[in-house]
Design brief:
Two copies of one chain form a homodimer.
Chain A: H1 2-12, E1 16-20, H2 29-39, H3 43-61, E2 67-70, H4 73-76, H5 79-95, E3 99-106, H6 110-120, E4 123-126, E5 129-132, E6 138-141, H7 147-160, E7 163-169, H8 176-179, E8 182-183, E9 186-187, H9 188-201, E10 211-215, H10 220-229, E11 235-237, H11 247-250, E12 261-265, H12 267-270, H13 286-305
Parallel strand pairs in A: 1-2, 1-12, 2-3, 3-6, 6-7, 7-10, 10-11, 11-12
Antiparallel strand pairs in A: 4-5, 8-9
Helix pairs in contact in A: 2-3, 3-5, 3-13, 6-7
Enzyme class (chains A, B): lyase
Domain Orotidine 5'-phosphate decarboxylase (chains A, B): 15-281
Protein name (chains A, B): Orotidine 5'-phosphate decarboxylase
Amino acid sequence: MINKLVDKIKKQNAPVVVGLDPMMKFIPEHLKKAAFAEYGETLEGAAEAIWQFNKAIVDNIYDIVPAVKPQVAMYEQFGIEGMKVFQKTVDYCKSKDMVVIGDVKRGDIGSTSEAYAVAHLGKVQVGSKKLSAFNEDFATVNPYLGSDGINPFVKVCKEEKKGIFILVKTSNPSSGEFQDRLIDGRPLYELVGEKVAEWGSECMGDDYSYVGAVVGATYPEMGKTLRKIMPKAYILVPGYGAQGGKAEDLVHFFNEDGLGAIVNSSRGIIAAYTKEQYAKFGEEHFAEASRQAALDMIADINGALHK
Amino acid sequence: MINKLVDKIKKQNAPVVVGLDPMMKFIPEHLKKAAFAEYGETLEGAAEAIWQFNKAIVDNIYDIVPAVKPQVAMYEQFGIEGMKVFQKTVDYCKSKDMVVIGDVKRGDIGSTSEAYAVAHLGKVQVGSKKLSAFNEDFATVNPYLGSDGINPFVKVCKEEKKGIFILVKTSNPSSGEFQDRLIDGRPLYELVGEKVAEWGSECMGDDYSYVGAVVGATYPEMGKTLRKIMPKAYILVPGYGAQGGKAEDLVHFFNEDGLGAIVNSSRGIIAAYTKEQYAKFGEEHFAEASRQAALDMIADINGALHK
């Protein structure tokens, strides 16, 4: 799947992933009104509004953006109905040939970690059959529990030719509380980065590993260091746009082949219509605003990369 | 909810939580056969088998055990059908007045972390209504992202009078890879423990905080240190039994009031019938074997505590 991701990034010339994090406040009134009219102000109604919102955005970006990253928390908060839309969104994006990164940040140990890996990337044994659950292409994983948490994911990645992105240095202001603490003179995130390189060396695609990393755009200097520590890891870079990461900062996350990083934007794309810059589209045409914002983001990043 | 947990532990004289981690291999053949006969070898069939298994165990332990800890990964791997049974299990245990600790180990930042908190402990806004999703009493949370990840949970805990257990030192062999690394001469888990005490000081119940910690039974010396660092945090202790933790090691996790810790056993209870010690019950009577194993565990721990 890492090969497919790299191919799509090359073909569309767009090292970009759109975060499908549909908070209710981003969803245009007309979609909410229609959904609530049909299902009432219920979890089902909320889920229907999210589904219509996601579908319109995907329809408007799938030909220019290689990947989407649905944030499962935004679905999980609507319970079973939310999870149904998560699944529907994953399936729909795959039917449009997009690569789907489940932003699930799961992390546990042993058989539990294996169950998460199976839930999101693999197949579960039911009697004599092997069945898929959510079946994303990639998942994000938390490293705090060490190798016992990661190995079961790596095993499933090998079997299914899927991938993971392990949290190394997150984009938020307080990420340094633990991640930056010095251990033998070096920050924790560097040690985690070294383990990512080690875990990833066991399951390589053509040029990059099935095991990637998450490093926030908001920490470009750390990105530069981590790029060297994990040369074969694809870096998923959150924090561009809304969180303050700029295109010129992103160059450090890429290798000299122009590859090695994929930059995420969530609300910058899906809620573009709420911004002055794209207000001309109007709320009705929110998905066209998203397309324009995606095109602008791609141009912005490619501009910085090819300067 | 921490007050209710403490009350129940006192009343039942049982500082014990049963992990409802229903792996398919633990489920007796007759339950699987019946479920597959009705629904086929499908995710729905697996979910039905899990539900019948859980229900029988809960019916046999609710009067002697104060709390259950369903491990969501074991349900998530069966997709939507699995999550429905997770929800059904949570609801059923609450109807039996058990305290439910959702072992979800979620962790993200800002609005995403808030969405997870809402999903598992709070209420989500849908139009003019506030609705519940999974609605457990407690959830487990991963600290790797720092305060940005924890604060939204603390906010929801205050609003809803619910609680969290933050991973501090996990029970697995490789937990030391990151958690034990020395920072200014002290292991990372101690720093996380200090933050747990700090986060928890803001939302106190009568004697203990709504913010607890997870510390593995397999590391009793570290438990002793962490007990002192976080005197007001309830410690959820996994790793007893199957993972090697012994009752005499557990005393270090308790305060002098005989409270402050709740010990988890999962397969030791739910799969008791597969062990020689309880084989006499037979597979048909698996839930009675679970009851006996729970009684034995309570006696074992109380014996060590009152020595």
